[in-house]
Amino acid sequence: MALDIRLDKHLTDPRIAAFLQQHLDDMHRTSPPESVHALDLQALRDPAIHFWTAWQGEQIVGTVALKRLDAEHAELKSMRCSAEVRGQGIGRALLVHALAQARELGFQRLSLETGTHAEFIPAQTLYRSHGFQDCGPFGSYGLDPHSCFMSMAL
Question: Which of 64, 74, 132, 139 could pair with 107 in a Cys bridge, judged by C-beta atoms 3.0 to 4.6 Å apart?
Fold first, then answer.
């Protein structure tokens, strides 16, 4: 089934809210509360954030967002695929879309924070395969043994 990636400015669809709640629940299951940096629905409505949803028919299967840190630097946020479709290339498609959008928006650097636990290794591998490299904390982040920081020039 074809993948439809849509910019969502208002995040009012209850399916998006449910999908994001699953994301937050998973992050709280795998990381201590002070190490959970996933944004909730209200935070994703910030004008500094561009948010996309990926759909197969009427089913939401993924999300990705870009958060403006400054005129040249953005952060990849809310990158998630539903468990039912993992391994089907949807994460890769979302990442390629986000990279293209970041370039189109004029950003020169894109950074991200992800977890260090074993279940985050596929995400780290995906990011590295697209040019992300390990870096230190950026923006308002501090050192955290549960966080892996990555960045790339666009």
Answer: 74
